[in-house]
Amino acid sequence: MSDPVPPDLRTGDQLRLPAFFSRAWWRAFRPARTRINTRERLRLVAGSLIGIFLTGLLCHLVSGTAVASLPWLVAPLGASAVLVFALPASPLAQPWSVVGGNTVSALVGIAGVHGMHLLGSPELAAALAVATAIALMLALRCLHPPGGATALMMVLGGISDPLFAFYPVLLNSALLVAAGIVYNNATRRPYPHMQLAPATAPLSGQAKLLDADLDAVLARYNQVLDVSRDDLKALLVQTQSRAYDRKLAEVRCADIMSRDLVTVEFGTPLQEAWALLRERRIKALPVVDRTFRIAGIITLADFMRAAELDLYEGFDDKLRKLIRSSRTIHSNKPEVVGQIMTRNVRVASEQRHLVELVPLFGSTGHHHIPIIGEGERLVGMITQSDLVAALGRAADPAS
Questions:
Q1: Are residues 181 and 311 located together in one domain of the fold?
Q2: Exposed e or buried b for every residue in 143-160, given b needs 16+ CB within 10 A?
Q3: CA-to-CA distance for 51 and 344, rounded, in angstroms?
Q4: Where are the alpha helices (DSSP H) in the chain?
């Protein structure tokens, strides 16, 4: 069975690389799937077409009037177009990366041409130009892969005129970025890609832990990623949210209900029911008939209502009077559970999904919901505590 986790992302003190010529090493050559639909494919193809066409057209017009001796379009711009229109969210495709990366690299390559006679080797000059361009792009925070091609093109073409870095390279890059801004935003792809705004309110403990864990993993990974930290965090949060919703949607009442039930019957004396509530430290007792079908429920609120405990005055005396048995044939006060219980009881089947009960607990004031099984017999009870525990388990990544 193949390991779905990339070897360089497994947990451990250090990143472990796959052994050369192992199965994992050969799998690295397999092309990754591009997880976009046909509409997105057409969007980025059309964007590249429009961007390069307009850039070339405008620069060609300038070339014909002002600087006819210089070419009007540079080849690395095609690679820039791939980034701008296919990966508009990438840090490598942002306006400063495109314009700054290409222009700085062009200047480096031109300098390499001037220093080639000192090096005595065109191969060394080309290599130094590319390496220096990468170093400067990193320092100036404008890393742009086509910049390496731009630097190399200067050296291989023997281009020594500094003007070339501004026309066509700078103008090409600026016009392509302008086309990308218009086209990407018109097709609902924000560009420049906005990063998350700084939090105005203090982060919760969970959010702080997520930030700290993400920073620790990125520091351990220690490689340039073609996705920003903020986007990576947003993707992680959305993935966790979907996983949480999916796990919660699979939970049924039977999975979390309390099965060790304490029940009473219609004729159970109030004194006995009150004693059960206190001894078991519970707030509700299901009332069942002889077939164990739900007949009602008695809660602390029912006792308070029957004892007329709206006012605190005389609380103890009123309660004692209610639960004390009259020991007479006729009584003017309630004597058994059935006389004060709530008859209209909201129940749920044991196969019902838990998410369907959340609104009952959240908006209707329910604290206990009896669960019924085959033959509508009582099989369990779900309380607010059971619900909170289930929500906590669903949020646990290890569960």
A1: no
A2: bbbbbbbbbbbbbeeebe
A3: 68
A4: 23-27, 38-65, 76-81, 95-114, 116-119, 122-139, 145-157, 171-186, 205-221, 229-250, 253-256, 270-280, 300-306, 315-323, 358-363, 384-395
- Are residues 313 and 273 part of one domain? yes
In a domain, 278, yes or no: yes
Spatial neighbors of 123 by CB under 8 A, at least 6 apart, are none
Q: Is 12 left (phi over 0), alpha (psi -120 to 50) or beta?
A: left
CA 37 to chain centre: 21
Q: What's the rounded Cα separation, in Å, for the pair 213 and 374?
A: 47
Count of other CB atoms within 10 angstroms of residue 21: 8
Q: What is the pLDDT of residue 4?
A: 45
What are 225's two structure tokens?
């990623």
pLDDT of 12: 45
Which tens digit of pLDDT belongs to each residue from 59-98? 888 876 555 556 889 999 999 999 999 999 899 999 999 9
Q: Residue 146 in contact with residue 97, Cβ under 8 Å? A: no
Question: CA-CA distance, 18 to 5, in Å (whole number)?
Answer: 12
Q: Verify that 27 and 48 share a domain, yes or no.
A: no
> Which 3 state secondary structure label does DSSP give 302?
helix
Residue 2: is its pLDDT beyond 50? no
Q: Are 71 and 159 in contact (CB under 8 A)?
A: no
Measure Cα distances from 148 to 76, 102, 134, 173, 391 in Å: 9, 8, 7, 14, 51
Q: How confident is the model at residue 15 (pLDDT cuts 50, 70, 90)?
A: low
End-to-end CA distance of the chain: 23
Residues 19 and 47 placed together within one structural domain of the fold: no
